[in-house]
Write a structure and sequence with these properties.
This protein starts with a helix and ends in a 6-residue tail after the last helix. The chain contains 30 helices and 22 strands. Helix 6 (120-129) crosses helix 7 and helix 19 packs antiparallel against helix 20 (440-461). Strand 14 (464-465) and strand 15 form a beta hairpin. The strands form seven sheets. It has a six-stranded parallel β-sheet with strand order 3-2-6-7-1-8, sandwiched between helices. With 717 residues, the protein is α/β, with parallel strands linked by helices. It is globular, with a radius of gyration of 31 Å.
Length: 717
């Protein structure tokens, strides 16, 4: 085996565990990779290292992932590593490519059926055939059940029993769902159509039932890599087994603690059982987290350490590698509008302080929670984008802009700088590089086109590509024409640029992404975990959702919930996954006591809210100040100095440390809040009846303007 400088560069900078994954021998390899541990680097480095050392041929590798974006990133990294001939695709894209290639042979010359982009229209018709009236929401639910069944290799006649075993909760009686499923299949066949699950099944059928197809496929693909292996469903696993054909050169990468798609049929069972199915498997654990601060990593570990069940067997304890950062902030609000307003205000402050809006995310359990935050952010003048909504390149304004850019290639002088050329072209569709317009929809349109300008700037700034193993850089042209070609390529691969706005996303759609600052909101019982999580397995998946959300944050993390949905509404408890969010004064059990003894309850404690932003204050210093440590101070510096001098004299006379009289935090609170009555004094945490009696009169006099000498002469006390 030849080892050259390019392969050595692949190994450079890898930590010991990553290096073990990259250099593992041929055969079954299972990489258990925690969040932020560099799994994509490990995957691409393993492929590149094996190809560059001559162990394998890059053209015989098929790397499979679950999103077009992840596949595009794999291809890009492999190209930079000098192994561009590797095929990196999603399961569906790989299967569709094979089915189309073999269609003339498999269909005896007949045309390939039309591929359905969406099941909803056909499911609506199928529901009518089954005697159901389904609106769009109901049709989407039924389509989801059909997708689950087909991904789980369940036929219409088997659905009722399978759904009962899987504890599926459906919008209609299982027997009716089965009728809709059967009618959908009939309508689809009659119309000469197939859906995405049919594509996978056709690929399996082509290999399992046609030896010549199997031989050609297996001769082409001899080495397999599967990313996010915890998300594989039975149909995808069957296709993978068909591709392998009994061979075992397979590398899988996954994290059982990020199994959050079981409702679609995904199961971590294949990842958990991998060492048992492949007795000679090499298992490597990646636990060094290069994404998040130790504070974020510590909270993530604390949450997942309580996990139970099958996935917990492969639980990883992450080790943070980044410098220390701020502790995660924990906030409780009176109602959801107050929570959304506080989040928007903090986003505004962070952006004003220099944090790019695109590096901030607000994550929630359900898409229905998005509206309150869209409204609050719009009112605060904060740009935002909704993750998982309309695809970027499918937006009407983006399609219009791309047409305008292509047209401009014929009229803009070739020597025009790329950014200027793009701005000029976008002026034709009404965009100008000034402040975005007011209004949610108009602002979103402006931000989408601004993202194209930003992409042009990035494209112009990196004209050279230097793949590993290539002696000289390859320079591509920086012209409007080449940029429009780049946009077309990205559109085809759904390689979306980052819009400069705060991201609003469900926890499910946030998986695989990361931001500098993350707000996790709505962490209340009934929301996370959802009320629909009734079994132990379902509750554990909700816990993993929170774990995924926490590990999206690089530096700064906020966790909050509202004690009621609306002002004056029914009170709620904090999520059981974060007991430290429970507000003081609730009836949370803290000690079950001895057997036969009634549970002990926490004594009621006065709840203190920030006088500036309204957040419930949990930390002792914050409660004394009456505000969050991050909210602006309005301290009276001159009063603060007089209070410090007075405290010094009192402590000296009593021969006690100064903090025994009042702590520093209490002095700051007094100088900020400037109480004028005894009632206002005792409202400050840390000033009880005893200290009110000892020092109340003197403090009120100092706040009123008296000097220290007037209140506390040197020779007295």
């Amino acid at each position: 085996m030849v080892v050259n400088s390019a392969s050595e560069r692949v190994l450079a900078g890898l930590d010991p565990e990553q290096r073990a994954a990259v250099t593992a021998p041929a055969g079954p390899v299972c990489v258990l990779a925690g969040a932020g541990t560099g799994k994509t680097r490990a995957v691409t480095s393993r492929i590149a290292y094996r190809a560059l050392t001559g162990e394998i041929s890059a053209r015989h590798v098929l790397a499979v992932t679950f999103t077009a974006r992840a596949a595009a990133e794999l291809r890009q990294r492999l190209a930079v590593a000098g192994v561009a001939s590797v095929q990196a695709r999603t399961f569906h894209a790989a299967a569709l490519r094979q089915v189309r290639y073999f269609a003339p042979r498999l269909l005896d010359g007949r045309a390939m059926p039309e591929l359905l982009d969406s099941k909803v229209r056909l499911v609506t018709l199928a529901a009518a055939r089954a005697g159901l009236r389904a609106d769009r929401t109901a049709a989407r639910d039924l389509a989801g059940e059909i997708e689950w069944a087909k991904s789980s290799l369940v036929e219409p006649g088997e659905y009722v029993v399978a759904a009962a075993k899987a504890l599926r909760e459906t919008s209609h009686e299982p027997a009716k769902v089965a009728e809709v499923f059967a009618a959908y299949e009939r309508l689809k066949r009659a119309g000469g159509m197939i859906d995405f699950e049919d594509v996978l099944r056709a690929a399996v059928w082509g290999i399992e039932e046609h030896p010549d197809v199997a031989e050609q496929v297996r001769n082409q693909y001899r080495h397999f890599v599967v990313d996010e292996y915890q998300d594989v469903n039975p149909l995808q696993q069957r296709l993978l087994d068909a591709w392998l054909g009994g061979r075992d050169d397979l590398t899988v990468v996954g994290d059982a603690s990020q199994t959050i798609y079981s409702f679609t049929g995904a199961t971590s069972a294949y990842l958990v059982d991998f060492p048992r199915r492949h007795r000679a498997a090499t298992v490597v654990r990646l636990v060094r987290d290069y994404r998040s601060t130790p504070q974020v990593v510590g909270l993530a570990n604390a949450v997942i350490s309580q996990a139970r069940g099958t996935e917990a067997r492969l639980r990883l304890e992450l080790v943070g590698q980044q410098p220390a950062g701020p502790e995660p902030e924990r906030r409780i609000f009176t109602d959801e509008p107050a929570e959304a307003a506080a989040v928007a205000a903090r986003c505004r402050a962070m952006i004003d302080a220099g944090t790019p809006a695109r590096e901030i995310a607000v994550l929630f359990r359900t898409n229905a929670q998005s509206e309150a935050y869209e409204k609050a952010l719009a009112e605060a003048g904060v740009p935002y984008q909704v993750q998982g909504a309309e695809r970027f390149f499918e937006r009407a304004e983006v399609r219009q802009a791309m047409v305008a850019l292509r047209a401009a290639t014929r009229s803009v002088p070739g020597e025009t700088p790329l950014r200027a050329a793009v701005v000029e072209a976008l002026a034709g569709v009404g965009w100008a590089p000034d402040a975005p317009p007011p209004g949610g929809a108009a602002r979103e349109r402006w931000e989408a086109l601004a993202a194209l300008v930003q992409l042009a700037e990035e494209y112009a700034a990196t004209p050279e590509i230097l793949p590993l193993g290539v002696a000289a850089a390859v320079e591509r042209p920086v012209t409007l024409a080449s940029f429009t070609e780049e946009l077309a390529r990205r559109a085809a691969q759904q390689h979306v640029p980052t819009v400069d706005g705060v991201t609003l996303a469900s926890l499910h759609s946030a998986k695989g992404l990361e931001w500098d600052a993350v707000f996790l909101v709505g962490l209340a019982e009934g929301t996370l975990p959802t009320t629909y999580a009734r079994t132990t397995e379902q509750v554990e998946e909700e816990r993993r959702l929170l774990y995924v959300g926490i590990t999206r944050a690089r530096q700064w993390l906020w966790l909050s919930y509202a004690s009621a949905r609306s002002p004056g509404g029914r009170p709620r408890r904090a999520s059981r996954f974060l007991p430290q969010l429970a507000p003081a004064g609730t009836t949370e059990r803290v000690d079950a006591g001895r057997p036969g003894r009634a549970p002990q309850r926490r004594a009621a404690t006065r709840i203190v809210s920030c006088r500036i932003c309204g957040t419930t204050l949990l930390a002792g210093p914050d409660r004394k100040l009456g505000r969050c440590a991050t909210c602006p101070s309005d301290i009276d510096d001159e009063l603060h100095e007089r209070l410090r001098e007075w405290r010094s004299r009192v402590a000296g006379a009593q021969k006690v440390p100064a903090y025994v009289v009042f702590t520093d935090a209490t002095l700051v609170a007094l100088a900020e809040r400037r109480p004028g009555r005894a009632e206002e004094l005792v409202a400050i945490a840390g000033i009880g009846p005893r200290k009110l009696g000892l020092y109340g009169e003197a403090v009120l006099a100092l706040v009123g303007g008296a000097t220290v000498d007037e209140i506390c002469p040197q020779k007295t006390f």
